[in-house]
Amino acid sequence: MTTKRIVLIALMVAMLTGGKTAIAVIPNVEIVSLFFVVFTLCFGIRDTLIASFAFVLIEIFIWGFMLWWVILYLIYWPFLITVVGSVDYFVRAVIYRKHKVGTIAFDRQKKKDMARYYITAGIGVICTILFGVISTFIEVIFMDAIGTGRFWEFFYFRYLAGIWFFVVHVVSNSIILFSLVPILCTVAKRFRIVQKRATYTYVKLPLYGYFPKVQKKKCYYHN
To answer: Could you give phi then psi for residue 213, rounded to 5 degrees?
Structure first.
């Protein structure tokens, strides 16, 4: 791992921790998901995953150790990063070439970038919806509801009790992701702080269309 990558990951962790703490007084409104989506798009899955684990570790030092939310964060943040990164990989394989996808012609770089940002922002919103389900599931497990034989009943009422918090979370993240992901990614690209991607050649596969085949891997960053 190079010094530049270490500094980059440290800056990501600092932004995650500072951003979360800055708006912690607002119930269920957070910008951690925004940062993880932007970091995944700009710097890739690997470095963002490392930053997520470091972020969880710092959260333990700040707020204390509670097993259920530590497990939740260790499951959800890597899940969000992996899903967003995988969808972004597929989207780049599809739209970063001159052809038509459905009725939309992605023949300009700006349109391609905007399509990519909005698609991944939508994936972030879907993951936010799943966050309420995953957190309730883990919480009910720690309530020892499995041994009672009434797990799904406990799950239903526990999820229903926090439904308004989940609604606020989904609505706020929808606004934040769709409004700020394109802006932050565009700024990062303009100031040349986006990681260079691998060089691809497209290989046509039966039934699946064109998918990227890595021709040359580049693991360094723009200066």
So the answer is: -120, 120
**pLDDT tens by residue, 17-54:** 999 999 988 888 999 999 999 999 988 899 999 999 99
Backbone angles phi, psi at 66, to 5 degrees: -125, 115
CA-closest candidate to residue 16, choices 67, 68, 44, 57: 57
pLDDT interval class at 64 (50, 70, 90): confident
- In this structure, which amino acid lies at residue 119? I
Q: Enter the tokens of residue 202.
A: 């497209």
- Rounded to an integer, what distance in angstroms lies between the CA atom of residue 109 and that of residue 116? 11
- The ranges assigned to domains in the chain are 3-129+172-197
Q: Which residue has 């992605």 as its token pair?
A: 106
Range 3-129+172-197: architecture per CATH: Orthogonal Bundle (1.10)
